[in-house]
TrEMBL record:
A molecular function GO annotation: structural constituent of ribosome
Entry's Gene Ontology BP terms: translation
Listed SUPFAM superfamilies: Ribosomal protein S20
Superkingdom of origin: Bacteria
Lineage per the UniProt record: Bacteria, Pseudomonadati, Pseudomonadota, Betaproteobacteria, Burkholderiales
Name of this chain's protein: Small ribosomal subunit protein bS20
Region of interest (Disordered), ranges: 1-24
Keyword Ribosomal protein: yes
Sorted UniProt keywords: Ribonucleoprotein, Ribosomal protein, RNA-binding, rRNA-binding
Matching NCBIfam families: S20
Role description: Binds directly to 16S ribosomal RNA.
Length: 87
């Protein structure tokens, strides 16, 4: 357990930050799954629209250092390739 006031505050902040980051990570994973489901359904226009929204979410999460920028680029690249292969 934290002994100093500073350490107690940092522990409180850590809990709050962890829950916020977890929700952002969950949102990221859900949006990626939505793109994959749209691609699997075969509807290119719907998949393209979902992909556009997902790239925004991926970039937002990467900007906040929840995931690494390279991981964000990898996700976007693989989703774009899958979308392109749908044609």
């Amino acid at each position: 357990m934290a002994n100093t006031a500073q350490a107690r505050k940092r522990a409180r902040q850590s809990v709050a930050r962890n829950s916020h980051n977890a929700s952002l990570r969950s949102m990221l994973r859900t949006s990626i799954k939505r793109v994959r489901q749209a691609i699997a359904a075969g509807d290119k226009t719907a998949a393209a629209e979902v992909y556009r929204k997902t790239t925004s979410i991926i970039d937002r999460v990467a900007d906040k250092n929840i995931i690494h920028k390279n991981k964000a680029a990898r996700h976007k690249s693989r989703l774009a390739a899958a979308l392109k292969a749908l044609a």
